[in-house]
């Protein structure tokens, strides 16, 4: 007959496997922009002085694809100048096996359920 310690060890081992402790944690790199020092006035001034706003005579003869390409070239350059991107390493831990779609739906239901009003 197993002792109480054997049963507890078995329970802790199985619950740790369910919780996901000891699971492989991978790191992924993501890019973030620093918006702390973003100056809207300087960005607006640079945007007004950019090719998007200064060459209005060329825009009449330009196709939509060329204009989109110019937009795709200009805006990221201005954003990189005023709000530079930096790389951050984030830990990614896979979700636990017991937290399935049924569990997620219950959490969403209870988070968004209307709260009962208190009677005075």
Q: What is the chain-wise order of helices and strands?
A: HEHHHHEH
Q: Tell how many strands the DSSP assignment holds.
A: 2
Strand order of the largest sheet: 1-2
Q: How widely separated are the two ends?
A: 58 Å
Could you explain how this protein is built, in words?
With 120 residues, the chain is α+β, with helices and mostly antiparallel strands. It has one domain. The protein contains six helices and two strands, in the order αβααααβα. The protein has a two-stranded antiparallel sheet with strand order 1-2. α2 runs antiparallel to α5. The longest helix has 19 residues. The protein is elongated and about 85 Å long.
Short account of what is shown:
The chain is α+β, with helices and mostly antiparallel strands and 120 residues long. The chain has six helices and two strands. The chain has one domain.
List the main descriptive attributes of the protein structure presented here.
single chain; 120 residues; alpha+beta; 2 strands
Topology:
Blueprint: H1 4-19, E1 26-33, H2 40-48, H3 51-54, H4 56-61, H5 64-82, E2 85-92, H6 101-112
Antiparallel strand pairs: 1-2
Helix pairs in contact: 2-5
């Amino acid at each position: 007959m197993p002792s109480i310690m054997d049963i507890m060890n078995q329970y802790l081992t199985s619950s740790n496997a369910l919780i996901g402790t000891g699971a492989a944690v991978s790191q992924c790199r993501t890019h973030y922009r620093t918006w702390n020092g973003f100056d809207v006035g300087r960005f607006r001034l640079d945007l007004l002085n950019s090719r998007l706003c200064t060459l209005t005579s060329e825009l009449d003869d330009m196709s939509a694809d060329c204009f989109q390409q110019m937009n795709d070239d200009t805006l990221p350059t201005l954003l990189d100048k005023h709000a530079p991107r930096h790389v951050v390493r984030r830990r990614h831990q896979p979700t636990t096996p017991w937290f399935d779609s049924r569990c997620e739906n219950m959490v969403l239901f209870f988070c968004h359920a209307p709260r009962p009003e208190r009677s005075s």
